[in-house]
Design goal:
By secondary structure, the chain is mainly beta. Among the domains are: 3-49, no CATH class; 57-148, Immunoglobulins (Immunoglobulin-like, Sandwich). The chain is built from two helices and eleven strands. InterPro entries: FN3_dom (IPR003961), FN3_sf (IPR036116), Hematopoietin_rcpt_L_F3_CS (IPR003530), Ig-like_fold (IPR013783), Type-I_Cytokine_Rcpt (IPR050379). Residues 55-155 form the Fibronectin type-III domain.
């Protein structure tokens, strides 16, 4: 068999029309030569041991509403895997909060989704997924990392209206009213008994004039 050189990659070639599921081991010989000399190397392998899928694609992690310790993770089978129905893959998921260095792992026999149920509330997580043929081969490299933070309850906005306390202010004035000047009433000076005629301060003057007139008449006689 001839390994055809890959036009896109310098150090890669492809072998077409291999006998799949063969129990015969394969031997690959690579030789190189230049002006300084020639060299060759060979390896032998079993096709079942070298099956290695590409990493899963489109890994997405989302918070689960009203669940502060859950994250929902989904992904897709690598597009380079030829027939997922005939050659199913199993998956290996790892995750950790950014505040810790230790990973937690979950192996899944099928499916392309998983719900993390033991996340730390409010902490950002990093999640990666690897894939492997269900029967043979080795695990793929880790996928591109997805990041997510579990759901957290939004703070409630409380509206408080401040009400001024009802206060009653009683003011007592100690100032006496200004004095009122008035002419005395005879009723107020007497022994009481009802209203009387006003008291005239001209009475003594009238009495004096009457006495003077009597004296003048006696002198004329």
């Amino acid at each position: 068999m001839v390994c055809e050189k890959d036009p896109a990659l310098k150090n890669r070639c492809h072998i077409r029309y291999m006998h799949l599921f063969s129990t015969i081991k394969y031997k690959v010989s690579i030789s190189v030569s230049n002006a300084l000399g020639h060299n060759a190397t060979a390896i032998t392998f079993d096709e079942f041991t070298i099956v290695k899928p590409d990493p899963p694609e489109n890994v997405v992690a989302r918070p689960v509403p009203s669940n502060p310790r859950r994250l929902e993770v989904t992904w897709q089978t690598p597009s380079t895997w030829p027939d997922p129905e005939s050659f199913p893959l199993k998956f290996f998921l790892r995750y950790r909060p950014l505040i810790l260095d230790q990973w937690q792992h979950v192996e899944l026999s099928d499916g392309t989704a998983h719900t993390i149920t033991d996340a730390y509330a409010g902490k950002e997580y990093i999640i990666q997924v690897a894939a492997k043929d269900n029967e043979i081969g080795t695990w793929s490299d880790w996928s591109v990392a997805a990041h997510a933070t579990p759901w957290t309850e939004e703070p409630r906005h409380l509206t408080t209206e401040a009400q001024a306390p009802e206060t009653t202010t009683s003011t007592t004035s100690s100032l006496a009213p200004p004095p009122t000047t008035k002419i005395c009433d005879p009723g107020e000076l007497g022994s009481g008994g009802g209203p009387s005629a006003p008291f005239l301060i001209s009475v003594p003057v009238t009495v004096a004039l009457a006495a003077a007139a009597t004296t003048a008449n006696s002198l004329l006689i």
